[in-house]
Specification:
The protein is mainly α. The protein has helices at residues 3-12, 22-35, 39-55, 63-70, 74-86, and strands at residues 59-60, 90-93, 102-105.
Length: 111
């Protein structure tokens, strides 16, 4: 079965495959995991991108929920978000100081 047939079969049975930009797997992964030594940041970025794509909206999620979704500790999720915001790969916004943050994945290579 070739790739196109497999893709058609998956869509036919109702499983939607997320699309990942080639830059993410070809460049960003090596940059975050290899150069920056922050593999959790890469996992958080990919998870947020997929979740944002499936929701068609920014993702509002707590550190605890994010950590549980990815399978890492809460402190690792916090550090990953901080690094992604610093690198301008994710933007974070809160309605109030104590509100749950809303994250939007950035794609600076597309500009």
């Amino acid at each position: 079965m070739c790739c196109n047939q497999l893709r058609i079969a998956i869509v036919f049975i109702g499983i939607a495959m997320q699309t990942i930009d080639e830059y993410v797997t070809g460049v960003l992964m090596r940059d975050l995991v290899g150069h920056d030594k922050r593999p959790v940041s890469f996992l958080v970025y990919v998870w947020l991108a997929a979740e944002e794509q499936s929701r068609n909206a920014a993702v509002q999620i707590s550190y605890r929920e994010l950590a549980e979704s990815i399978g890492v500790s809460k402190s690792a999720a916090q550090a990953a978000i901080a690094w992604l915001v610093r690198r301008k790969l994710v933007s974070a916004a809160k309605a109030t100081v104590t509100a749950t943050p809303e994250y939007k994945v950035q794609t600076p290579w597309r500009r």
